[in-house]
Amino acid sequence: MTNTTNKINNFEDGKMLPLMESFYSIQGEGFNTGKAAYFIRIGGCDVGCYWCDVKEGWDASKHPLTATDLIINEANQYSAKAVVVTGGEPLLYNLNYLCGELKKKQISTYLETSGSSKLSGIWDWICLSPKKNSPPLSEIFDIANELKMIIFDISDFEWAEENANKINNNTKLFLQPEWSNRKKMMPIIIDYILKNPKWSISLQSHKYMNIP
Fold first, then answer.
1. Is 70 exceeded by the pLDDT of residue 15?
2. Rounded Cα gap, residues 188 and 194, in angstroms
3. For the whole model, what pTM was predicted?
């Protein structure tokens, strides 16, 4: 078996992933804001939101295929036994191996996803953030712990409610202003939540604190 074949097999098995970056920091968004975690950002995205702040992560070929074991060993070096897997869109890849090995080390697993691809992996917390141009698969609505809707303009409130009608009763609901348009949308979001208190506000607090 050639090295190329080995790489392909390992990629399909989730034993290699296109790693964009990884770092230890504070969760800045949503329900788990303020908690320490190790972040794994996987390259590649088929959703392509025009306001995305990590467009450099869209093309997976620009990010080196990295042995998942190396990623796991690095995550295990830090005090907080929690890993947030994000992207790009991480569910483009088989995450069963990554999560299984993290679990063996007693590390909690958190997923940030648009839900546009089939679910893989074992998750303690799933943050679902649906996007209009590539809506979530139906299967993820029943298991999402958190629904985080990005609000860029007024039309996004209708999209938020469409998705809120699909989730389970225990899912936490968040509206988050898109960073570049936050000054305009913040007062509108606040007023909306005051009238619709099932929602809470999520802020990209890590940007306010100037941390990764």
1. yes
2. 10
3. 0.92
